[in-house]
Every structure is written in structure tokens, then in C-alpha cells.
Amino acid sequence: MFAPKKCGIRYEPPTLVVEYVVQATGKLHRRSMPLRDVTANSNPDNEARKFKNNPKHGKYLEKISQEKLSRILSKCIKFLKGAAAIGSNKPVRLNLDDDFMGGSTDMDMNKLNDSELQFEKSKMNKDFMEKQIRPGDPDYEYDKEVNYGSGNLGDVECDWDESENSDFSF
Q: What is the pTM of this model?
């Protein structure tokens, strides 16, 4: 008999992972079950039912509730939907509590892999397109100049961009 201790998913490649104890020996084991048939359009309840009825994997999932298994699989499906949204065949990392990695401005994009970076860039591009003001829009102003100031440092004199005349000849 098996007593599950932990149950979770691995996103790359999509895999259901169960840590369990064999009661006869008391040893801890880990079983990885690939989620080959799970797609972005899958129903988590149906997939959980399939796994529990699977002759190969079902004995390891007997003591895990249908609801918990369904909730775990729904996270994987949400992850796969994020990968499909950017047109990638590779999964991307998502914060599963939000729809995206989360609008954090302190994210180091140098540490992201190519698919994650592409996903973040597509989010920024979407946000830009929503906020963009075009000619014909009511708030559009041609050649708008905005003085952002310099925060707590006070105004810093810079004369390099004030002069129309250039002393340099090219």
C-alpha cells in the first residue's frame, strides 16, 4: 500500500509528481507521471478522473482526493494556456496566482529564457498598445512636451539639448 506525502506538478515537461511512502518498508519514493494528453483546452476534472482510473498510475493516486488532483491539474492547464497565448510550443513560467508574472518593475529580464522573455515583451507591447494615443484620439496633442523634473535632486542644468545651433560640423 502507498501513502502519498506530496503531490504537485512539474511544468517543463508537464508532469504530475507524487511523493509517497511504501508502508511495508517505510521508504520514501517519487513517481513522475507525464501529462501527455493534457492540453490548454483540457477539462481538469476529466483529466483527474482519467488519472485516478489509469491502471498504471491509479494505485498511487487512490488516497489523493479528486478535488485536489483536479486543482493541481487546473494549474498545469492554466500554465499551458499561457504558453499557447504567446504562440510558443515551449511552456513558459507563470505565477499561477495571477494571469501573468505580475507587473513587477524590479524583474530582471536578463535572467529569463527566450520564451519567458517573449511572453513578457508581448505583455508590455499589449499594455503599450492600449495606452498609445494616436492622431484622431480626443487626448492627442501634436509635439507634446512634458517636463518630468528630476525628483528629489532638484533641477539639474543641462545645456546640451537647449541650443538649436550646433558648434560641431559633421
A: 0.48
